[in-house]
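Recall the central idea of this unit: under ordinary conditions, the amino acid sequence of a chain determines the structure it adopts. In this exercise we apply that idea directly, starting from the sequence alone.
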Amino acid sequence: MNTDVMPRRDNDEYGEQIYTKAVRAGKRTYFFDVKATRNDDYYLTVTESRKKIDPNGNSSYSRHKIYLYKEDFRKFMGGLSEMIDYIKVHKPEFFDHDDTAATDIDEEFEKL
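Accordingly, the structure predicted from this sequence is:
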């Protein structure tokens, strides 16, 4: 999985963008965007972008987005952390590869 910090270029109209991280994973790219409302409240958007190629060879992107608001950060982090821990116990081989970009999820959310 490749991670890059890069500016977004799609001029999303849902708030002022503060920080972006793109994670490339095969045919998918995940964008993690910290944005601010007019009142300077931060929220997070997570976008999955998947490249699709039609039978004629034309490409397009399918996007799915979730919005995570400040009042939900802790609950979301707790739920996600619990699920990752469960997978680590039951499928440790998923985490055996050397991925220098992988860090503890709690550390990443603390940066927010």
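Residues 73-90 form the longest helix (18 residues).
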